[in-house]
Input
Amino acid sequence: MAYDLSETIKIFINAGTLPLSRSVSRVQEMLRSSDYNAADLAEHMRTDPTLTARVMSVANSAFFSQSPCEAITDAVNRLGSTQLMRIFAQVLARAAMLSPLQAYGLTPDKIWRRAVYAAVGAELAAARKREDRSVAYMVGLLHEIGMLVINSQWARQYGAKQLAFEGFETEYSADERARYQFDQATLGGELLKQLAFPETVYRIVGTQYQNPQEPLARALYLGRLAQAVHCSALVPVCDRRVAELFDLDSKRNLDTFLAEVHEEAQNRIQRS
Output
């Protein structure tokens, strides 16, 4: 049976399987609008207490706050669109990880740990090339969100076996395509597109199993590498071209990078 990618994602979103997806989609659309208005965005966010609470928390954190924000409008103005998109990605990722992914044998804690390690790895790699760290972080945080779509289809098949993992480079993608026509990367890219995330984010997520040809795609590759090492106890061989471009072609440099990712990821997990 042939499936339409766009329709598959529309059905998934409409089923309400992913909490907060409609709210995040709406605020993303407002942020990307040419006539973006902070007051209108704040008014919309007042209807979603989860988004409001997270934005207020970050706006009043020590990093951003010289004086406390008492209203959501003040918080929106203080943070700006880039930081708000990063917050929305975190909220969406957290909401996506409330339940286990039984098709993959992953508990919510393991899912969140994988996401944070990939996000931090991508962010630190992007910093090495002076690329946009916030976009790299979003890409890493959400790169496995397509697993939710696969898991929802898997759950409807009584007695289905867990998906087969085939190594760092392609992960579960061969078995995903064999069973469901699409792999989680393709589904995740389309999901983020329909949720109005920036084109760079959904494009790189959707092509993560392809040979990385641009800086942010390579940053995600290194984020996934760090995730594989620290979350799955794998010892993958880093792509030589990527390693050279990021000055990680010596074992010492790569080990130092992986240690930096581990330290920062652990700090963020403890704070989350």
Observations:
- Residues 72-96 form the longest helix (25 residues).
- The mean pLDDT is 86.
